[in-house]
Design brief:
single chain; 2 domains; 6 helices; 41% helix; binds zinc ion
């Protein structure tokens, strides 16, 4: 078993509130969506910059991921991890599922290296429809 990670600086009040909001959400949230939540604004977080600062630390800790395509954030489902992750984004309901990509990480890295590219971060975003939404389609079409 790997050694337990050194105890990190505890999360601040604001970081805990933002993380809790993302964990509760069933789809990625933008900064403005986070700000609009009662659970957030009631705790005194009212400025976008406050949310950005909290997100910055949560991202650095790997507790949150940014979905570039949606310009939104999700709580990590299995933090912390250092393997690459993919996000399956449903175009219908906007739900996002985090998928570990450890198995294809090496392949992607060596493909990139062959063209002389050094990967610093690897995050794959897949766009399609989640099982729930594609099942709904089958139902409505008989
Ligand atoms: Zn993650
Ligand atoms: Zn869906």
């Amino acid at each position: 078993m790997p050694p337990a990670p050194a105890p990190a600086k505890p999360l601040t009040h604001n970081q805990r509130i933002v993380l809790a909001a993302l964990k509760k959400a069933d789809a990625p949230l933008t900064v403005y969506q986070i700000l609009a939540l009662r659970a957030v604004s009631n705790k005194g977080l009212r400025a976008p910059l406050t949310i950005y600062r909290a997100l910055e630390r949560l991202l650095a800790l790997g507790l949150v991921h940014r979905i570039e395509r949606l310009n939104a954030y999700v709580a990590c489902e299995h933090a912390p991890h250092d393997s690459a992750v993919g996000f399956a984004i449903c175009t219908d309901c906007r739900r996002v599922v985090e998928l570990p990509l450890a198995a294809c990480e090496k392949h992607l890295a060596s493909t990139a290296r062959r063209s002389g590219f050094q990967i610093e971060t690897l995050q794959v975003e897949m766009v399609g429809r989640c099982p729930r939404c594609s099942a709904g389609e089958e139902d409505s079409q008989g």
